[in-house]
TrEMBL record:
Record-given protein name: Ribonuclease HII
Intracellular or extracellular location(s): Cytoplasm
HAMAP family recorded: RNase_HII_B
GO biological process terms on file: DNA replication, removal of RNA primer; mismatch repair
Enzyme class: hydrolase
Annotated Gene3D superfamilies: Ribonuclease H-like superfamily/Ribonuclease H (3.30.420.10)
Organism: Xylanibacillus composti
Keywords: Cytoplasm, Endonuclease, Hydrolase, Manganese, Metal-binding, Nuclease
Length: 202
């Protein structure tokens, strides 16, 4: 999980940031990205793609990552912007914001299957969250951050049960959309494909 980091430590410098996003496939709320610079040579065997970890494990690793990290940046792009510029561009914008929020400028970026619009040496790695500790750490930080946002959104919109499904297109979420219509925080461009027969949602 450190092969790419070692290459870029030698080539560019010790501040190598992993970058990843979560929430790309959700019907509701922001897409969230994280950029994480871990200390050179620090190893945590349990860090892995956030999707392969339990919620409890992600929370535990989040605490370890935030304690150890040289710097962490978070980027968020809301549903209205996603509808305006499309989800791919919104995810890339969130990644850019995350990198720009870092307290120190990274020497290089390792990015999960994307290009970040910043003038920093970078490498896009397909399934990078399973191949790079830095990207996996970013995936965990982004996932925990967004899940916590979902708990707050659940208080605001309890009828959609966001705490359960985190905004993804589960059966319960689709049923709630049919029953209550779309909230201001739903991604209208996503709903058209799934619920195009429900004209009253728009």
């Amino acid at each position: 999980m450190l092969a790419y980091e070692k290459e870029y430590w030698e080539r560019c410098g010790e501040w190598v940031a992993g970058v990843d996003e979560v929430g790309r496939g959700c019907l509701f709320g922001d897409v969230v990205a994280a950029a994480v610079i871990l200390p050179k040579g620090w190893v945590c065997e349990e860090i892995n793609d956030s999707k392969k970890l339990s919620e409890k494990k992600r929370e535990s690793l989040y605490d370890q990552i935030t304690e150890q990290a040289v710097a962490i940046g978070i980027g968020c792009v809301n549903a209205a912007t996603i509808d305006k510029i499309n989800i791919k561009q919104a995810a890339r914008l969130a990644m850019k914001q995350a990198v720009e929020q870092l307290a120190c400028r990274p020497h290089a970026l390792l990015v999960d299957a994307e290009k970040v619009d910043v003038d920093i040496p970078q490498l896009a790695i397909i399934k990078g969250d399973a191949l790079s500790q830095s990207i996996a750490a970013a995936s965990i930080v982004a996932k925990v951050t967004r899940d916590r946002m979902c708990l707050k959104w659940d208080e605001q919109y309890p009828e959609y049960e966001l705490a359960l499904h985190k905004g993804y297109a589960t059966k319960r979420h689709r049923e709630a959309l049919l029953r209550y219509g779309a909230s201001p925080m739903h991604r209208r461009s996503f709903l058209k494909g799934i619920l195009n027969e429900q004209q009253q949602l728009f």
